Amino acid sequence: MKKFLALSAALSGLLLATECPASAIELAVGQRASVPVTSLKEIKFRKTTRQQFDFSCGSAALATLLTHHYGTPVTEKVVFETMYANGDQAKIRRQGFSMLDMKNFLAPRGFVGDGFQQPLDKLLDAKLPAIVLITDRGYNHFVVIKGSEDGRILLGDPSSGTRSVTRDRFMELWANKLLFVVHKFPGKVAFNAADDWSAAPRAPLGNGINNEQYSQSLPKFGPGDF
Fold first, then answer.
1. What's the pLDDT tens digit per position in 138-155?
2. Which of 48, 58, 99, 160 could connect to 156 by a Cys-Cys bridge, CB 3.0–4.6 Å?
């Protein structure tokens, strides 16, 4: 695994993504035209912030939540550097970011975020996105619940992009049943958006996460209302 302390410097040197390449298409009359082509991979990360390292899913998930659901654009780099600078750095180096780190990042920005132990249906009825920790093959990974429809849960996965899984599969992956939710927000919240669903094929593709080693720690807040 890449050294944790090297992340901040490495993130500073990331290059912006280049424009989508153009492909030549043969028209019926024999003419050729160049049109931009967007890959499926690009589509899947259009509304989900991609993590740059195998241990940065927490900062990428929070960036996804703010940027694509609460209309507050922020990069993974900013979230990571701020949470690391203001958190328990020794603990973060050992265990990764926690929901408490996320809560502390949100507070000075006017957001109230907390962890709740509540049924999934309560979240879906409230039409609120949430950050959750899933566990697959022994690895822990933060993702964002983006919506639900026809027995499927729509996830913003910092590792593999926007994807959907069956509700039964999600309940298997969601072991600790904790929801990290922004509440008491007065503005409009994006949830279950058609544009998000367009990036998630409704077939049993990639129901697992990448087999990378994630290590995240979550404090256990008490139950509460959304």
1. 889 999 999 999 999 999
2. 48
